[in-house]
From TrEMBL:
Keywords tagged on the record: Glycoprotein, Protease inhibitor, Secreted, Serine protease inhibitor, Signal
Organism listed in the record: Pleuronectes platessa
Secretion signal span: 1-24
SMART domains: SERPIN
Main location class: secreted
Family that this chain belongs to: Belongs to the serpin family.
InterPro entries the UniProt entry points to: Serpin_CS (IPR023795), Serpin_dom (IPR023796), Serpin_fam (IPR000215), Serpin_sf (IPR036186), Serpin_sf_1 (IPR042178), Serpin_sf_2 (IPR042185)
Record GO cellular component, one term: extracellular space
GO molecular function: serine-type endopeptidase inhibitor activity
Subcellular location: Secreted
One Pfam family linked to the record: Serpin
Name recorded for this polypeptide: Serpin domain-containing protein
Domain Serpin: 37-403
Entry keyword Flavoprotein: no
Length: 416
């Protein structure tokens, strides 16, 4: 008989705070795109009409950290689900290391900080090889704490998180998340900020109606520019007129990293398009968009989400590490460890330049009757990915169902 009380929960967290950026050269191809898309579909099923934002790369890194300590079927489930099963055993750690090292390289044009930390229970002996590999592959800080002092531990970890996210993510954990049976907590934080290669001019931003999928309308600040971007029109395979959707790729400075925006027709809800999204389709979009002049209307948006990774990962087949069948015996001797909690918090803010700035009033000369270039009018829900063009690594994936809503009182210029 198994007595759950004697098992030792672990807490796995990953916190993400973005902006925009780019990648360095000589990094391998990411193999986790299918995993990323499957995560998205899980969140979509659970998400109703809400915005979605998460970092697939951050989940892959956090899973890599757990995988280092896993053996047997627990190890096999992670390799299978994340997309490492075709690699020789252990190669994925070098892959994740190289992918993140590629991210951290350079730095003049964007800010990126990726930090991993491991909080261990005092008095428990952890396998030195595990700690060595955590430092080697994930550059993890290792600290010893007493989880039975749950309020003090929550404070300490929250401070660490704040300190690695430019204070944007606060109070992530509370005392209730820890107890005298907690043995280990992994925290993964990413901070990322950059600029569009072609910035939007704040004076072209103005109030605009955004039509949500439920038919309601909200007022938002719509950014505008006309410029050279990669653009394409694709069909969902149906013969219907509504089956054609637009894909716009907007690069960040350095051009290694870009945001792809996928927009169905105005009358088509995003939910109609979402089921066809696959890893191979992301590639197809990236390979088939063509550079041309485009008129872009994109709302400013701020999306934030805290995800219970435990239930999401279980749906994707990573089950054992969360149960009494967990085999994390590469971390400590014995088999009494399991993952008690797994959380990711992600936040993304998209503005004219990449940093919040004042919005001036202004006029956009609208030439609806004389449109010479394709117009991408994101005045209804859309899907997006922020992705490395070199490796295919997906830093962020999400959807905007409701952008930043402004009250009528904030609105001192005319609606279009
Ligand atoms: C990671 O980079 C190192 C050093 O360049 C290289 O030897 C190794 O093969 C790379 N690993 C993968 C999985 O690409
Ligand atoms: C916060 O980060 C700075 C610089 O990285 C470091 O010197 C400082 O000790 C950190 N503080 C805490 C509480 O972790």
């Amino acid at each position: 008989m198994l007595i759950l009380d004697v098992l030792s929960p672990l807490l796995l967290l990953s916190i993400v705070l973005p902006g925009y950026g780019c990648w360095a050269a000589d990094i391998p191809e990411d193999t986790t795109a299918e995993f990323s898309v499957r995560l998205y579909h899980q969140l979509q099923v659970a998400g109703g009409q809400e915005n979605i934002i998460f970092s697939p790369l951050s989940v892959a890194v956090a899973m890599g950290m757990v995988e280092l300590g896993a053996r047997g079927a627990s190890l096999g489930e992670i390799r299978q689900a994340v997309g490492f099963s075709h690699l020789l055993p252990g190669v994925e750690f070098s892959l994740l290391q190289n992918l993140t090292a590629g991210l951290l390289d350079d730095g003049a044009r964007y800010v990126i900080r990726l930090a991993n930390s491991l909080f261990l229970q005092e008095g428990i002996t952890f396998n030195p090889e595990f700690l060595h590999l955590m430092r080697k592959y994930f550059r993890a800080d290792v600290e010893t704490v007493d989880f039975s002092e749950s309020a003090a531990v929550a404070d300490q970890i929250n401070t660490w998180v704040e300190n690695h996210t430019e204070s944007q993510i606060r109070e992530l954990l509370s005392a209730e998340d820890f107890s005298s049976v907690t043995r280990l907590t992994l925290v993964n934080a990413i901070y990322f900020r950059g600029s569009w290669k072609n910035q939007f001019r704040p004076e072209n931003t103005r109030t605009f109606s955004f039509s949500r999928d439920d038919g309601s309308e909200v007022q938002t600040l719509m950014m505008y520019q006309q410029g050279d971007f990669s653009y394409g029109e694709f069909s969902d395979g149906s013969q219907e007129a509504g089956g054609v959707y637009q894909v716009l790729e907007m690069p960040y400075e350095g051009e290694d990293m870009s945001m792809m925006i996928v927009l169905p027709r105005q009358e088509v809800p995003l939910a109609t398009l979402e089921p066809i999204i696959k890893a191979s389709l992301l590639e197809e979009w990236a390979n088939n968009v063509k550079r041309q002049k485009v008129e872009v209307y994109l709302p400013r948006f701020k999306v934030e989400q805290k995800i219970d990774l435990r239930s999401t990962l279980q749906e994707l087949g990573i089950k054992k590490i969360f149960t009494s069948d967990a085999d994390l015996s590469a971390m400590t001797d014995g088999k009494d460890l399991y993952i008690g909690k797994a959380v990711q918090k992600a936040y993304l803010e998209v503005t004219e330049e990449g940093a919040e700035g004042a919005v001036g009033s202004g006029m956009i000369a609208l030439t609806r009757t004389l449109v010479l270039y394709p117009q991408v009018m994101a005045d209804h829900p859309f899907f997006f990915v922020i992705r490395s063009r070199k490796t295919g690594s997906i830093l962020f994936m999400g959807r905007v169902m409701t952008p930043e809503v402004i009250g009528l009182n904030d609105n001192d210029f005319d609606s279009m």
